[in-house]
């Protein structure tokens, strides 16, 4: 597996985690848990944005990774 595909796979995993946290935050009744899920989701969003930027850099530097 190439570095480019590993970064993209990691990005997909982060998106899945973020969606799970969002779902948990919506379903829980515990206010503190809801806040914790939301805060963690926001951190995951920052990581997701960083990985998206890295994917763009990889695709610019190595054209063969574009679209994978």
Helix content: over 70%
- Tell me the number of helical segments per DSSP (H or I, 4 or more residues long): 2
Uncertain stretches of 5 or more adjacent residues: none
Count of all domains: 1
The description of the largest β-sheet is: none
Beta-strand content? under 5%
Give the class from helix and strand content and strand pairing. Answer: mainly alpha
Mean pLDDT: 90
Radius of gyration: 15 Å
The count of DSSP E runs of length 2 or more, i.e. the number of strands, is 0
The helix/strand series, from N terminus to C terminus, equals HH
Describe this structure in words.
The chain has one domain. The protein is 82% helix and 0% strand. It contains two helices and no strands. The protein has helices at 3-27, 31-61. Helix 1 packs antiparallel against helix 2. The protein is elongated, with a radius of gyration of 15 Å. The N and C termini lie close together (12 Å).
What's the SSE blueprint?
Elements: H1 3-27, H2 31-61
Helix pairs in contact: 1-2
Q: Quick gist of this model?
A:
By secondary structure, the protein is an all-alpha fold. About 80% of the residues lie in helices and about 0% in strands. The protein has one domain.
Features:
mainly alpha, 68 residues, 82% helix, elongated, single chain, 0% strand
């Amino acid at each position: 597996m190439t570095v480019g595909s590993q970064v993209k796979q990691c990005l997909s995993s982060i998106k899945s985690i973020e969606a799970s946290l969002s779902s948990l935050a919506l379903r829980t009744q515990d206010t503190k848990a809801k806040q914790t899920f939301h805060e963690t989701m926001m951190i995951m969003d920052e990581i997701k944005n960083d990985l998206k930027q890295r994917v763009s850099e990889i695709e610019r530097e190595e054209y063969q990774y574009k679209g994978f």
